[in-house]
Design goal:
By secondary structure, the protein is mostly helical. 42% of the residues lie in helices and 10% in strands. The protein is elongated.
């Protein structure tokens, strides 16, 4: 362990009890890193996209329609590692150059994606940029869902309808918040690794 002569041993042998660590232990406090958007691969300086020109042209055309007020859904598909996230990051830079607000959401495979997880990330980013105030709307919707899912309230004849309505309430609220943000300024939402998205996000 690199003992320095004249200093106390770090490990001692206690008869009948074995070895034990007796060195000084210091606790260092660390502050958690601030939350940030989900990490994405940024284009390397001077590194062109190879073989993605047709896809890039179609995405740039979608950006032009967005600037004209026409929404578009684009899906980037392909084998893992072929550069889908890199392409999305490239079109993000083009969008920012034309004054479009960009927000990212990411799905996770390891521990699963919580309900509406990627869209909650998007809404948090928009709220951090003062584009929307999502906390009040989502809080009220969550409280309403809890009340509708109370066991006593589910004994009535309309319990089936109530359960379905509660399941769609948060989805509707998130969609309304995104629509409100898009009415304020042009908005590009990027959902990465959507193959691992939860069922609510896919709706």
């Amino acid at each position: 362990l690199g003992r320095t002569p004249g200093t106390r041993e770090l490990i001692e042998n206690s008869y009948g009890r074995g070895y034990r660590f007796v060195g000084e232990v210091r606790v260092q406090e660390t502050r958690p890193a601030p939350c940030s958007r989900p990490p994405q691969a940024a284009p390397e300086a001077g590194s062109p996209l190879v073989g993605r020109e047709p896809s890039l042209q179609r995405l740039e055309a979608a950006l032009q329609r967005l600037a004209a007020g026409q929404g578009t859904l684009c899906l980037l598909s392909g084998e893992p590692g072929i550069g889908k996230t890199r392409l999305a990051a490239t079109i993000e830079q083009r969008a920012l150059e034309q004054g479009t607000m960009v927000a990212w959401g990411r799905c996770h495979a390891a521990d699963g994606t919580p309900p509406l997880g990627p869209f909650m990330q998007v809404l948090n980013e928009l709220q951090g940029a003062d584009v929307i105030d999502a906390s009040c709307a989502l809080g009220a919707q969550a409280q309403g869902d809890r009340e509708r899912s109370d066991p006593a309230s589910m004994l009535g004849h309309s319990s089936g309808y109530t359960a379905v309505r509660a399941g769609h309430g948060l989805i509707d609220t998130a969609a309304q918040l995104l629509s409100a943000a898009a009415r304020k300024r042009s908005l590009l939402v990027i959902i990465d690794d959507v193959q691992w998205a939860d069922a609510a996000s896919l709706k």
